[in-house]
Design goal:
alpha/beta, single chain, 14 strands, five-stranded mixed sheet
Length: about 475
């Protein structure tokens, strides 16, 4: 709604906010002033005493610009006595201090317009504003909508808003405060806001839609190279070492600093369907693009990888803080209830370092999911590092899968139970009692499960070498 909607007629402020349509400015008195009901033109300052009460009086250039200071004081007193809404002095650049004080005391708005401006046009514009507030609002709204229609798909949001502001004669701004929301695929990007005005209100929905289209186009253009990098990064991590080495040059050509220092953040989600996984990836991509443009994203199966690469070391605390903020925004604001688990690898240099950090991050994400913690950083010391290094080898992963293939044939749930039982039994050096306590089951249940497991594997756990290989395989499977 425009500022005079409830008051029926406009105020002086509405004349000042019409930009180039009315090239006037305030010399003295309040900007809001009194309601404007009628406009009149007078040839001299003396005629102000005969102007209609409550009118806005336009004094022609020669009379206003050449009057001495004392005549201006008298004229302001006469205008105040007539309860004029405002006075426009054509060609008058300044007022004496006494006249300014008189205007402020009487709450009389005193305005000026350029001497070269046609007085008849000025009066006509003011009259249209006073008598045709709705028509003026529609005309400004139509001009703004024309700007929106003419904006090219590859145009600039900033440029469009500047042109719309000119058309509306009201400033429209972009920010993160209250206002007309702008979103892409349901994801809030920011808001448009402007002053209370009918034309602004008419235009805002169309303007928000246009801004969303431009933002989406810009995001698509900016992310196109990133999407290509994402594919290459995924292949660098999962490919055989020799193949990854051949792809490194392509990654460098796409701007990915293969030889830099890499820290991988691995994100896994608990069982969302395909559509939700895609939406989750789009959400993470959008936030990373906006908040962390120097980071890269990739996907490995259903998991999301964020790679922080730099020539210099980025403190681990900074990476963890950024990851925590990202998870908080994504899960809390847009995917509430999603089990999203995040693992952080250590900083490693070069292609081998990238692969190592990714394996560590994956292991850490598994720990986070197991312990139901949102985020877990990889322990750079101890057995987990050894397991991660074993798992980093594609050959080792194949050996693990071959050893445990008979158990995998049971299906995901029963296989996980069998691997966990076997690993716990070997962790506890063959103690049925300790294994039962750890798994919270009866010792007889442990005995039954182990008999089924060893029969399926065709394994004799008394064979130290075979027991060690199975133990290592179980550890790699469960902790990486």
């Amino acid at each position: 709604m425009c500022s005079w909607h409830n008051a029926v007629v406009p105020l002086v402020a509405d004349l000042l906010h019409t930009g180039s349509r009315l090239p006037i400015r305030l010399l003295a008195g309040p900007e809001q002033g009194r309601p404007l009901a009628v406009v009149t033109a007078v040839e001299s300052l003396e005629e102000l005493s005969q102007a209609p009460r409550g009118a806005l009086a336009v004094v022609t250039g020669r009379a206003a610009s050449r009057a001495p200071d004392y005549q201006m004081d008298v004229a302001i007193r006469q205008a105040a006595e007539r309860m004029l809404a405002a006075v426009v002095l054509v060609g008058r650049a300044t007022l004496p201090v006494t006249a300014v004080r008189l205007a402020e005391r009487a709450r009389l708005a005193v305005l000026t317009a350029p001497a070269e401006y046609n007085v008849a046009d000025l009066v006509l514009h003011i009259d249209r504003t006073i008598r045709g507030g709705a028509a003026d609002a529609v005309a400004r709204a139509q001009a703004a909508l024309a700007v929106i229609r003419e904006t090219e798909p590859a145009g600039s949001v900033e440029e469009m808003l500047a042109r719309v502001t000119t058309a509306l004669a009201r400033e429209v701004t972009w920010g993160d405060g209250p206002g007309e929301p702008v979103s892409i695929d349901g994801r809030w990007l920011g808001s448009l806001s402007g002053p209370p005005d009918d034309a602004v209100n008419l235009v805002m929905p169309a303007l928000a839609a246009a801004v969303a289209r431009l933002k989406a186009a810009t995001l698509a253009r900016d992310m196109a190279p990133g999407q290509t990098r994402a594919e290459v990064i995924s292949e660098l991590i999962i490919a055989e070492r020799m193949q990854a080495g051949r792809m490194a040059e392509r990654a460098r050509g796409l701007g990915f600093p293969v030889d830099g220092l890499h820290t991988v953040v691995w994100m896994s989600a608990d069982g969302p369907d395909l559509a939700e996984r895609r939406r989750l990836y789009d959400t993470v991509t959008l936030h990373v693009h906006q908040a962390m443009p120097s980071w890269n994203l990739a996907r490995v199966a259903d998991d999301i990888l964020i790679v922080c690469s730099d020539r210099r070391h980025t403190p681990a605390a900074d990476i963890r803080s950024t990851a925590e903020s990202l998870i908080r925004v994504v899960v809390t604001d847009e995917h509430s209830g999603t089990g999203l688990w995040c693992g952080i690898g250590t900083a490693q240099r070069g292609l081998d370092g990238l692969r190592q950090s990714a394996m560590e991050a994956r292991a850490a994400a598994s720990v986070a999911a197991r312990d139901r913690k949102r985020i877990h950083a990889f322990d750079a010391t101890g057995v987990r590092r050894i397991l991660a290094e074993v798992a980093a080898s594609a050959l080792s992963r194949r050996v693990v899968d071959e050893l445990l293939a008979p158990l995998d044939a049971l299906g995901p749930d029963r296989a996980a139970e069998a691997v966990t039982t076997l690993c716990s039994y070997l962790d506890n050096r063959g103690s049925l009692k300790a294994t039962a306590q750890l798994l919270h089951i009866h010792p007889n249940t442990v005995t039954y499960r182990l008999r089924q497991i060893t029969e399926r594997l065709g394994a004799d756990l008394a064979d130290a070498d075979l027991a060690f290989a199975l133990h290592l395989a179980c550890r790699v499977r469960l902790h990486t």
